[in-house]
């Protein structure tokens, strides 16, 4: 979690350069520097423990998921989506020890300017790639559900690879400003890792920060949220219209992933927005930051655990092997696509012709893992 100040720093040239000590809050996209020295030491300790616990759980769980998806399961479009989604969680989880130390040292950056750039660049990369992948998955499920025949003909691994490459390239491009504008500077005896958009002594950088925040908010939260909600509303409408009662385990898995993503990231953006547009009491700032930190930790480290349990009885998960549990969680249910294709055709074909069509469609799929139809993302 990157550190950000509670208000924006502004500088004016008045003989000697005075710092207007108004800094903004924790965000990948503004003068990041978390000047929350007002927080009591015990609160810092609790937050640091939470962050470090998230690291231990996240590395273990995401590492296991990545190994199973990458090495033990047949490569399909669906497993490729999840493979890269879990990779984004693993990248973010690996950053947690640095931020735990940062909090324990009362927000004194001791890792130097290079790590300042690298760590917050990596955090931003994880954030963008996560939301872009989950948005891609929601669009994929929409096409899979509402246009099953087209999806069955065009939903192929080579195309999925190109889409995933595009997601990573876009995330890299949007995270690059961290490498260019993040720097360390000393304030009140502490080193701070923060953005600096000051190009001249008389420049007021507020509007630059505002634009930076809005771009990240729109691309990393608002637009993906609207796309995801639209896709799943249409999916629900189509399922109701076609009387498709079996939605498949994958739908529940993706719904859980998306819900956890927005629960995790909405407080994060809310915290930054509150600091951008108005002054807030320190007590409110503390609550918002603590909530944002908790949400981010939950999102990147604990969300994958939901994949094994959502839609299943708790005891049943432990009665099966890990591989079987993963197969049930991440592989499409062929009956859903079968039912959907059959429903779409029966207005023009008799029952016998529809059955033959269903058989041929399913045979086009992998003999081991066959596709289903679906939900959202984190």
UniProtKB/TrEMBL annotation:
Signal sequence region: none
Transmembrane segments: 45-69, 81-105, 111-134, 163-182, 206-232, 253-271, 291-310
Main location: membrane
Domain G-protein coupled receptors family 1 profile: 61-307
GO biological process: inflammatory response; phospholipase C-activating G protein-coupled receptor signaling pathway; positive regulation of cytosolic calcium ion concentration
Cellular localization per UniProt: Cell membrane
Domain of life the protein comes from: Eukaryota
Stretches of the chain forming a coiled coil according to its record: none
Record's bilayer topology term: Multi-pass membrane protein
Entry-linked SUPFAM superfamilies: Family A G protein-coupled receptor-like
Function: Orphan receptor; could be a chemoattractant receptor.
Name of the featured protein: Probable G-protein coupled receptor 33
